[in-house]
Amino acid sequence: MIKRTLNNKKGSTLIMVLMSLSVLSILGTAILSASVMNFKMKKIDMKSKQSFYLAESGLEEAYVVIEDVVNEGVTEGRKRVDEKLKEIEDLVRKISKVQEKDISAEAYKKEVDDLYEQIKAISTHVNKDGSINDEEEFKNDMQVWFAQGYEDEAGIKQQGYKAYIDKHLVGELRNEANIHMSSVDIKDYSKYSDGFNTFELILESSAIKDKIEKRVESKFSIEIPDYYIDYSNKKIEEFTENVLWTKALLSDKDIKVKGEKVEVKGDIYAYGNKDNSNIKTKGIIVGYGDASGSLNVNGKVITGSYFQTGKDNSTINVVNNGEVFCNSLSIPDGNTGSNINIKGDVNTYDDIELNGSNANIYIDGSYYGFNDGSKENTKHDKSSGIVINNDSIGSDDSTIEITGEGKGKWYAPQYKGTFIAGTSYIELGDDPTEKKYYQTGESVSVKGNYKAYSDVYYDNEVYENLKKKYDSNLQSDDVKFDYFSPLILMDRVDSKSDPLYKQRKKYLMAVSEAKIDDNILNVGNGKINIKDVKYSIGAYIDDGNIKDGGVSIDYDKLFKKNQKEYDFYVNAMGDPQVDIDEILKNEENHTFSKINISNMLNFKTINTDDKEDKNKDTEKKDYREIIYINSNTGYTLEGKGGKIKGIIITGGDVHISGDVDFEGTIITQGNIYIEGNKSKKFSNDYGRNKLNSYILNKLSQNEELKNLFKKTGNKKIKVLCNLKESEGQVSLSKFIKVSEWKKTK
Questions:
Q1: Which regions span the lipid bilayer (predicted)?
Q2: In angstroms, what CA-CA distances link 598 with 241, 626, 651, 700?
């Protein structure tokens, strides 16, 4: 019974099932517990990472704040540089305007020197014309203005890049509005103003997510940009100067103006058409064809031929102490109602001619008629004098006046006033192929006054006056007359060795004193006024009197300098490659070969007009731009209003009409014709102000254009030019360095 009971297997399966269920329950519970724990761990890890990422984002947001402050600091630094450059530019412009003032050479020098001292107080590395004398040092000046700012005249510190960051960075980082998801703490920082050239700070960013806090920190180093390399919108460009840049209008032939309202601010040059053998019909002519003209020039006027009115009622004005270099200054015969007014000095190789009627020449400046003709083959047309071939002067409305109150010459401060080195000649003979000329004793002559030399007027009173000028032993028959077809004129005083012009001058003065109340001599009835005469080789007229031009001072050396100066401007076009100052300082002879436009160019055709650039991605301009280079054809410029900037160089004639406001230079191997009554303005301030020059900026930005101009000498200039819009920009990240990152919790 017992055995049977023990061997009974009923219920064993249930036990096994229960045991298995128990094991499985235990395992399930363990697995479930592990899964729950794993889930909890993952959730904690996720929250930890979220806290970490939030803390990390705090540093990223701090970086953005730093970038914004650095960007504003760069803007502030550039602003300070621009302010200083604007101060320099304004002072250079003031210097250029001093020469427009009616002041003496001494006063001019003092005012220019005073202004230049103000420039040197800003930077000693800028010249009077805005060019740069030491590139590296000027870059250093700009770096100081950019980084440190400057103290203005009122003693107020104008802050630059460094001061802006010192002042604003910490406050912007502490501004909770700038950083949203975390807390950023500034653990340490050192400013620029503490003597460091790098602003360094350590930032720790913390964030808490579901009570889990994470902290990360990093070191930020903010360097000072190199203004000139990194953020300047300027560059210092080196140029080999070319004379073609220096003129507003430049022609190898003639400049002809008809119509009103033509204004030039800058120098103009026209050598005169070499194919025209008549010098009196070439050069710079105001009024031609069927219309009068009006020309107003603020600058130098240079021509190897005539500077003249060419049609009735034409007007020439040279203002603001401009200077004229010409063969002759003239209102020609047959011209009525024209006027020449020059506020500045006049230099003529030959004459001033007032030949028209009811016409006026007024020179408020010095006059240098420097050529006595002694070294010329044909002295009559190369002897400087003042010729009045209007024999109605005194009865009509014509006048001529020279004040002699000019700037003078820098190489001789005493050389200012009226200087007339030559005499007038009377043209004789009926055969135009065999003209003969009688040299008078007059430096200022009026048509008809040749009668004074006639034997008809030689009498005892004239003889007695002549004895006073020579000596009591003079015999009446020593005064010799000769036949100068078709006239019998006084030739010489037989017993004297004076040059003929001196003998004839003394004879003229003797006649004038004897016949002072007669009508032999026309002295202009007060309308001929030649003032401040320092030298006149012959007699001259002033306020109704004939005066002896004899002076004791020898101006021969100064006349030679004047000749060299004239040749420099007329033949060499005032080439800046020539050290004219050095040449004029010494007494050595010096000649200038004629420079032609072709000598100064590597001609290559470039035709560009803003109309062709419509579809190009170019900066918007408030002006039309013309770049036209063509050696074969001419150019027609018809203005329709609005500003034009450009460089026009051509081998043919240039025709200009319409409403024109042009800045730059127009250069031609042909003629320049300016036509019509609408306003026409031309400007090129290169000679006075090289800072912010359109021409130099354009050459700096266009290497092909720059290479057109030959490098004909060794004189170089360095000028601050504008960069192209796309140049000079860099990323701020170049100056913000991140290092020493680490977790702190």
A1: 12-37
A2: 16, 21, 9, 22
Cis peptide before 486 (omega within 30 of 0): yes
CA angle 348, 354, 359 (to 5 degrees): 130
Beta bridge partners of 727: none
- DSSP secondary structure string, 240-257? E--GGGGEEEEESS-EEE
| Measured distance CA(477)–CA(497) in Å, rounded | 16
Instruction: Round to whole Å and give the CA distance between 91 and 119.
Output: 7
Rounded Cα distance, 390 and 527, in Å: 12
Buried-exposed string 355-390: b where 16+ CB fall within 10 A, e elsewhere: bbbbbbbbbbbbbbbbbbbeeeeebbbbbbbbbbbb
b/e burial code for range 413-438 (CB count within 10 A of at least 16 → b)? eebbbbbbbbbbbbebeeeeeeeebb
pLDDT in tens, 652-690: 999 999 999 999 999 999 999 999 999 999 999 888 888
Rounded CA-CA distance 253/216 in Å is 79
Distance from chain centroid for Cα 58: 54
Among 318, 234, 333, 317, residue whose Cα is nearest residue 281: 333
Give the Cα separation of 527 and 521 in Å (integer): 14
Query: Confidence band (pLDDT; 50, 70, 90) for 46?
Result: low
Convert the pLDDT of each residue in 296-342 to its tens digit: 999 999 999 999 999 999 999 999 888 999 999 999 999 999 999 99
Give pLDDT, residue 49.
52
Neighbour tally for 659: CB within 10 Å: 15
- Report which residue type is found at 529: N
Q: Which of 351, 343, 247 is nearest to 302 (CA)?
A: 247
**Mean pLDDT, to the nearest integer, of 116-126?**
94
Query: Who's near 662: CB < 8 A, 6+ residues apart?
Result: 637, 639, 644, 645, 646, 680, 681, 682, 683
Instruction: Locate 137 and state its tokens.
Output: 């040092």
Instruction: Let me know: does 351 contact 327? Beta carbons within 8 Å.
Output: no
Those residues with Cβ within 8 angstroms of residue 382's Cβ, 6 or more apart along the chain or in another chain: 349, 350, 371, 373, 376
Beta bridge partners of 347: 325, 368
Burial (CB count within 10 angstroms: exposed 0-12, middle 13-18, buried 19+), residue 733: exposed
Helices 500-514, 460-469: crossing angle, 10 deg rounding = 130
Handedness of CA 615, 620, 623, 629 (dihedral sign): negative
**pLDDT given for residue 175 in this prediction:** 77
With both helix axes pointing from N to C terminus, report the angle between 161-174 and 135-148 in degrees, rounded to the nearest 10.
30
For residue 114, the Cα-to-chain-centroid distance in whole angstroms is 20
Contacts of 638 (CB under 8 A, 6+ apart): 656, 657, 658
What's the longest Cα–Cα distance across the chain?
202
The mean pLDDT value for 585-612 works out to 79
Asked if 541 and 533 count as a contact pair (C-beta separation under 8 A), the reply is no
Which stretches of 611-735 are assigned E, i.e. beta strand?
A: 624-630, 635-650, 654-668, 672-675, 680-683, 716-722
C-alpha 661/C-alpha 123 separation (Å) is 34
Residue 47 has pLDDT above 60, yes or no: no
- What tokens does 171 get? 């406050």
Contact call for residues 466 and 479 (beta carbons, < 8 A):
yes
| Exposure letters 185-204 (e unless 16+ CB within 10 A, then b) | eeeebebbeeeeeebbbebb
Query: Apex CA 319: angle with CA 313 and CA 320, to 5°?
Result: 170
pTM flag (> 0.90): no
Structure tokens at 705: 């254009």
Would you place residue 434 in the very low, low, confident or very high pLDDT band (cuts 50, 70, 90)?
A: low
